[in-house]
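Work Package 3 (structural annotation) set out to generate three-dimensional models for the target panel prioritized at the project kickoff. During this period the team completed the workflow that converts sequence records into discrete structure tokens, so that structures can be stored uniformly alongside our sequence database. As a representative example, we reproduce one entry of 81 residues exactly as it appears in the project archive.
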Amino acid sequence: MREWSRRAAHLELTERSLPDGLTAREAQILRLVAARRTNKEIAAELFISVHTVERHVQNAYRKIGANDRAGAGVYVASTSL
């Protein structure tokens, strides 16, 4: 229980420091998108489904105002995400 609390506190702190209301997972996936990874590659690397990756990508695009992977790449580069 103590370990879970520590991790939750760290995650909350991390998410507070991310721009535009991104979650830690959305930021992680945006970095991988900017590194030109496909959704399938991202899913395999993070041990999640392609559908879950697609959902995180959509949510992140909405939050940062991007329409595509190129826009996400520009955002990542300009914010040092």
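The domain at 2-79 is CATH 1.10.10.10 (Arc Repressor Mutant, subunit A).
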